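Lab notes, practical 5.
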Amino acid sequence: MGVTLKKKLKRYYIFNNWILFITLLPVAVWLAYVAANWQLSSSIKNYSTKTHVETRIVKAELPKYLSESYTILSSFDNRIDKLETAIINQQNLSEQQFTALYSLYSNSLTIFSIILGVFGLISAVLGILLSNKVNERYQEIKQIERTIENKTFEVEKLKADIDALINNKNTEIFNKFIEYDNSRLINALKENPDNIGNVVAILSVRNIKGENNWKIIRNAFLELCSRFKENMGHPAISSYASLIFQFYPNKISSGKDTELLHALINRRPWTQQIGFFSNELIHLAKVFALAQNDDVVTIFIEIVVKSPGCSRCLNMDQYKGDVINALKECILKNNKIRIEIEKYKELVDKQIELYVKNPSILAEHYQNIAKGLQEALSN
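Output from the prediction step:
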């Protein structure tokens, strides 16, 4: 019951508000119209007043304005005339520039044509030269190819020859190698003659020959001897003398190289130390058999016959017979050698007398030497 009454009161309140709104709405619209009309009238009045004032101002300023406008228009006319004149001048100038540019372009084309023609001519000449050069190179290459073919054929032939040489001439190849190695070892003596001690054992068992090797050995020997006074020396002197007697005895027996002869004689304490073998003694006896030069005979007696090698061979049954026969032939051919050997035998006999008084193994050694010399001297 209470709820229904509240709803009714609420509805009545809302309805009453709507009635009030509808009643006041026309009044509000009329008031708004009156206010708008009043404002519009005020605006029109103000505008009319302002327009009237401005109209009077315009009437007062109009002559001045027209005068200024005429002046401006006159100025515009002058400017237009000047502009037309400038345009005409510019057109004339443009025509002149165009003519100049056309002439320049035409001249440029002419010059370019000339340059192009010259360049074409140069290109043609260079082309011809290049063509000739290429042709020359081509011919050279062809020639090189032919040369290569020929060389290839030669190499193949040489290879075949080498193969055949290796297969069929082993000894010859070995000898060539030994000859090359000999030259290598001997050439080293040019700079260091003292190095003979390192190579003499190798060289003494080989076959050394050739004038070039002889010059090296001779010069190294003389250079080494020049370092020492007479009868002074170095064991290397004995090594050089051994090689000279072994491979170049004819250089001594000819007697032409006096410098070599004097060096051998003046260095006897060292040159007498050579240990000749029996075959070397026999060969040297044949080489020196016809020597007539006193220095050569002295060298043969002092260095060869009086050498430890000869004394040793005369004390050995297997060698003394051949050595005695070689000395005998030498004595028969050369009386100077006979005389020198007789003198040597006398010295040996004196040594025997000395050692007989003081018995030792050396007594028998000298007795064998004396017997050998006696047999060689006997006819």
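Observations recorded by the TA: The longest helix spans residues 2-168. The radius of gyration is 71 Å.
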